[in-house]
């Protein structure tokens, strides 16, 4: 079973505003496939959106520039589980509109200007965001420790022994 996320959960996990999401949805083809509030985004989609957020917010790259690599980014992020992504990095060659995933230990021969995106901090941030939401939505913690409760038959047997 694959966990799917709603647009609201995607925005919350990636720390983007509804306005930013609407703008990105117009600019990036992979974000246009949602159906209202129904779950339709994968965990890989969350990583891809968080990468886009990092590139736009931290590096000031316009989202329209990233449109040419959006499909590849979403495919790469959906092509591996989070533990594999977390150990790897993305190599972005914007002038040639190329994006590549490399395992952490892979050699990096480059002959042009690139952006190296380590995925560990991005996946860690997403994991923390998703876990904090789950904790706040779950039932409150018990104030007293759990104890064993026996059935009436077991209680009667126990009373007979005393």
Could you write a compact summary of the structure shown?
The protein is mainly alpha-helical. It has helices at residues 7-14, 18-27, 43-58, 63-66, 70-78, 82-86, 120-137, 152-161; strands at residues 88-93, 98-103, 115-118.
Task: Write the SSE topology.
Elements: H1 7-14, H2 18-27, H3 43-58, H4 63-66, H5 70-78, H6 82-86, E1 88-93, E2 98-103, E3 115-118, H7 120-137, H8 152-161
Helix pairs in contact: 1-7, 3-5
Describe this structure in words.
- The N and C termini lie far apart (50 Å).
- The protein has helices at residues 7-14, 18-27, 43-58, 63-66, 70-78, 82-86, 120-137, 152-161, and strands at 88-93, 98-103, 115-118.
- Helix 1 (7-14) crosses helix 7 and helix 3 (43-58) packs across helix 5 (70-78).
- 49% of the residues lie in helices and 10% in strands.
- It has a three-stranded antiparallel β-sheet.
- The chain has 162 residues and is mainly alpha-helical.
- The longest helix has 18 residues, at 120-137.
- It is elongated and about 85 Å long.
- The relative contact order is 0.12.
- It contains eight helices and three strands; from the N terminus they run H-H-H-H-H-H-E-E-E-H-H.
- It has one domain.
Measured as a percent range, the helix fraction is 40-55%
Main structural class: mainly alpha
Distance between the termini: 50 Å
The largest sheet has its strands arranged as 2-1-3
Poorly predicted regions: none
Give the beta-strand count: 3
């Amino acid at each position: 079973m694959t966990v799917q996320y709603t647009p609201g959960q995607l925005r919350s996990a990636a720390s983007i505003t509804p306005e930013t999401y609407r703008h990105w949805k117009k600019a990036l083809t992979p974000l246009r496939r949602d159906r209202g509030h129904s779950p339709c985004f994968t965990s890989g989609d969350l990583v891809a959106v968080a990468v886009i957020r990092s590139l736009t917010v931290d590096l000031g790259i316009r989202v329209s520039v990233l449109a040419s690599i959006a499909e590849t980014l979403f495919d790469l992020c959906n092509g591996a589980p989070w533990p594999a992504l977390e150990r790897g990095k993305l190599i972005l060659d914007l002038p040639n509109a190329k994006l590549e995933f490399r395992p952490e230990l892979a050699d990096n021969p480059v002959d042009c200007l690139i952006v190296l995106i380590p995925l560990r901090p991005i996946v860690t941030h997403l994991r923390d965001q998703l876990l904090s939401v789950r904790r706040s939505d779950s039932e409150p913690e018990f104030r007293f420790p759990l104890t064993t409760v026996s059935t009436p038959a077991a209680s009667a047997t126990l009373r007979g022994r005393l």
